[in-house]
Every structure is written in structure tokens, then in C-alpha cells.
Write a structure and sequence with these properties.
The structure is a homodimer. By secondary structure, chain A is mostly helical. The first copy, chain A, is built from nine helices and no strands. The first copy, chain A, has two domains: about 45 residues, Arc Repressor Mutant, subunit A; about 130 residues, Tetracycline Repressor, domain 2 (Orthogonal Bundle), CATH 1.10.357. Chain A is globular, with a radius of gyration of 18 Å. In chain A, helix 1 packs across helix 5 and helix 4 packs across helix 5. The termini of chain A are far apart. Helices cover about 65% and strands about 0% of the residues of chain A. At the A-B interface, helix 7 and helix 9 of A face helix 7 and helix 8 of B. Chain A binds a DNA duplex through helix 2.
DNA sequence: ATCAAAACTTGATACTGTCAAGTACGTGCA
DNA sequence: TGCACGTACTTGACAGTATCAAGTTTTGAT
């Protein structure tokens, strides 16, 4: 995207790029150091360890996602779906890390956790506004879980799953996502 | 589960167990070799390399999943959902590998791919039978994608995602899954 | 009994994350 | 000006890893 200046940005950018093309397992601190033209230990001054690097990617990713979801002013249900899936497809280098608790447990990174909560808050707020006032807490929670599941499932299946190879056959991916979104929202009254 | 006898089974079992508790990244061929009490190179006689080991896990997992989905004789829509999610929660050591294309590209493992197709075929067949005859190919494909997305999204969010920490609060996980399934199927007429 | 293949071992190489100890440099302060 | 100190970075070392190569043992069919 941009041309980063600080080593911190350079390393982060290189790592996201590797995740986007290969996956998190192929991110090596020594390789991003080489990519930045510095010694193998230089990145450790900006990230505590490998997990810290992934935490930074997660935080940036959830910030972008939360912004995307909040951006949709007076969104429709379909618009939220599409925003979620679109984020995943346009930022694979972030999305592939954000939910990988095994490589980065967000519980240990409050700043990242806050951005994650902000993203999920956008969905919860929408659902609370969208359902009529007779809805119980359980109904709201169930509905939010449902919406999130569809969007997350579709995003992961499109991005890395068996649907990926069929994307080529789909003329307009955005329209396909929108159609699934329309189908999904039919479950809500 | 069982007490495996052959080294191949022992190694496979140990790997699945590590994935279930820690994740695929913590699977080391040397560690499973140690667990089996053999030299660090012994596993290579049964699996071409690390990816081959994951392919074997995937094949076993998709076999189990396909069996589960086919097992549900004259299934309801909800039963299929529940079967999928239940499989993920009861076989995390398999499920966490089956969709990780970065550590194991099924395209290179025909036997595993066949089991995967068998699992997805179960869903596709059901959808084709479930929709009325006026449904177009696109509608069938869209519906199958939708159902799969909900089930897959819910499974991953429950297993590894932010919903996991809330599982404790959910009195009856099976009932919770069933309720989401009921909500999801309301989208289908 | 023999012989070839399968199952397994030992050894080496190149990579990784990370600890430990250094060096270079800018900035505030006396 | 000089000097102390923290930040950014380097060099070096260690243990762990996947995997190649080459050996040895075990086994099973003829």
C-alpha cells in the first residue's frame, strides 16, 4: 500500500504481506528483518516476540474492520454482511491472523482486544436497534451470533476454503455475497 | 480413543491430540516421534513430510464428517446443522486442520479430497432434495453455500473464536446450536 | 535359506525463535 | 562543552525444527 518509514511499520507491512500470500506460518522474524534490511534481532525492539507481531497485525485488522462496520451509516442488514466479507477478502493478511487464537491470544493484548470489542459492538448495536422492543436478551444474542456466523463462515470459505476455487466461476463476487446476504436476512422476520 | 498399534496410527493419534490441545503449529514430527518412542526419522516412512501428516488427519476428519452427515437418515435441515457443529466441537484435532489450506493443500491429496467431496456432497444432495423442483441451479448452489456458511461460521466461532469464552455461560451448548439452526432455517421458506 | 523390500536409526545441514551482550547515537542536563 | 542515559540496532550463541542422505535391522515371500 504505502511506503512505510519506521522499521516498525516496515516489519508490520512485510509480515501482513507474507500472511496474505502464504499464511501466518510462513512469517519468520528473520525473514521480515531481511526484507527490511536490518539484523535478525532488530524487530525485537518493536515487538516483544512473534506473538507480539501477530498481535499488532490483529489490532490493526480489528481497527480496520470496526471502522468498516461503523462506516456503514444507517446500514441495512445486508450492508453489514457485505462489509464483513469484503473486509476479509480485501485484507487477507489481517483476517487470517485475527481469529487464530493459537498464534496470538488477544486476551494478553488489551489494545487489540479493545478494537475487537469495538468491531463486535458495531454488530451488537445494530442487532439491538434492528429487532423490535419485545426482543429478549437471549433473542438479541442469538440473532447477533447468527449474523456473525453467516458472515464469518462465508468469509472464511471464500478466502481459504473450498469455495475459493469456485470464485473464478462466479462472475461477480460482490453480487454473489450480496445474494447470500439477502438469503440470510430472510431468517430475520 | 483406542490404543493404536501400528506406528502410523500412533503418530496420527499423537498429532491429532496435539492439535486438539494446542493447534497445528505445535505439531512437530520430532515430538510425535518421541511420543511414540521412535527415532526422529521414523514417521517419515509413513508420511512423506509434515504436510503429508496433516493430509492424513484431514482425510480421517472428512471421512468422519461425511459419515456423520450421511448417518442422519432423512435428516431435517436443523439436524444437518447440528451434525456439522457437533463434529467440529467433538473432533477439534481434525477440524482445525481440515480447512487450513496453508498447512495442507488438499489438491495434492486425492484420497483426502474424495472424502471432502463426499462430505460436501451430503449437503448438496440434501439441499437438492429439500428445495422444490422449480429451483434453479444457482438457487441450489446459493442455498448450499448459505447453509454451509452458517454451520461453518458457528463451528469456528464456538471452537476457537470469541464465542468460546462464552460457552461456559451457555447452559446447554447443544440446545444453543439447535436454536441457531432453527433461526437459520427460517431463511428457507 | 536367501534376498529384496520395508521399517527404522544415525548423522548432518540449514533454517527458526529467542536469550545475552555488545555498539552507535541522539537528547536532556550540568 | 561534557556526560549520562535511553533508544535503536548489531553480533553471537543456543536449542529446537524439517528434511536430506546414508546406514542398519526386520520381515516376508519364494
Amino acid at each position: 500500500m504505502q511506503s512505510p518509514d519506521s522499521l516498525q511499520d516496515t516489519v508490520l507491512h512485510a509480515a501482513v504481506s507474507i500472511v496474505a500470500t502464504s499464511g501466518p506460518d510462513d512469517v519468520s522474524l528473520r525473514e521480515v528483518a531481511r526484507a527490511a534490511g536490518v539484523s535478525h534481532q532488530a524487530p525485537y525492539h518493536h515487538f516483544k516476540d512473534r506473538e507480539g507481531l501477530f498481535a499488532a497485525i490483529s489490532e490493526q485488522g480489528f481497527t480496520l474492520l470496526a471502522d468498516s462496520l461503523h462506516m456503514a451509516k444507517s446500514p441495512t442488514r445486508e450492508a453489514l454482511f457485505v462489509a464483513y466479507v469484503t473486509f476479509a477478502l480485501r485484507h487477507p493478511g489481517h483476517f487470517r491472523v485475527m481469529f487464530r487464537k493459537d498464534i496470538c491470544n488477544l486476551e494478553h493484548y488489551p489494545a487489540a482486544l479493545m478494537q475487537a470489542d469495538r468491531a463486535f459492538g458495531a454488530l451488537a448495536d445494530f442487532v439491538a436497534r434492528d429487532l423490535d422492543e419485545t426482543a429478549t436478551i437471549d433473542e438479541i444474542r442469538m440473532t447477533a451470533t447468527y449474523m456473525w456466523s453467516v458472515a464469518h463462515g462465508l468469509a472464511t470459505l471464500l478466502l481459504d476454503g473450498p469455495l475459493e476455487k469456485k470464485i473464478g466461476e462466479i462472475a461477480d463476487v460482490d453480487e454473489f455475497v450480496m445474494n447470500v446476504a439477502r438469503l440470510a436476512t430472510r431468517a430475520l422476520h
